[in-house]
Amino acid sequence: MSEPTKARRPAELALRAGAYVIDGVLVGGGRLLLKAAGAPWLVPLGLAACYYTWMPVAYEGQTFGKMAAGVAIVDERGEPLTYGQCFGRYAGYFLSAALLGAGYVVAAFHPEGRALHDIVASTRVVAVAPVTRGRRLAVLAAAAVGLILLPLALGAALLLSAWKS
């Protein structure tokens, strides 16, 4: 990560959400393909763990979603990440989800825009590239679609599960 990254401003929450949705679609699609192919449940989980652990270390704090959003993960001092921090962040996603999403909401109120998984892993997400209007709209549209479709998909899955019982 370049020296100026240390002083970068926190990434916008909306861009972070868009990046998260983009990554979720990519990883979720891969997991569904693995499940459909009959892979044991640990294999799709391993895919997600590898993506969220390896990708930010290999690509200067960025996943494909973060690249699209022009943001990157750094440690608290603005330094590149370790595999341990990335895995800790990934584990923090489960904690945030277990708290009914409250761990993600923390970012809206934290002075540096850090979510629970950032706090747990001693990381922060910063802006690293200028975001054009078109790019911004695309990322925000991904976030909006994800935020609308996710509850609908979960509700449909619950209804389908109850209907089959």
Mean pLDDT: 88
Question: How do the strands of the widest beta sheet line up side by side?
Answer: 1-2
Spans where pLDDT lies below 50 across 5 or more residues = none
How many β strands by DSSP? 2
Number of helices in the DSSP assignment: 7
User: Main β-sheet: number of strands, strand sense, barrel status?
Assistant: 2 strands, antiparallel
- In total, the number of domains comes to 1
The helix/strand class is mainly alpha
How far the N terminus sits from the C terminus, by CA atoms, comes to: 52 Å
Tertiary shape = globular
Bin the helical content. Answer: 55-70%
The SSE order reads HHHEHHHEH
Strand content: 5-15%
Radius of gyration, in angstroms, nearest whole number: 16 Å
How does this model look, in words?
By secondary structure, this protein is mainly α. The chain has one domain (3-164). 66% of the residues lie in helices and 6% in strands. It contains seven helices and two strands; from the N terminus they run H-H-H-E-H-H-H-E-H. It has helices spanning 13-36, 42-58, 64-69, 83-98, 102-109, 116-121, 133-164, and strands spanning 71-75, 123-127. A two-stranded antiparallel ribbon has the order 1-2. Helix 2 (42-58) packs across helix 4 (83-98). It is globular. It starts with 12 loop residues before the first helix and ends with a helix. The model has no long low-confidence stretch (mean pLDDT 88).
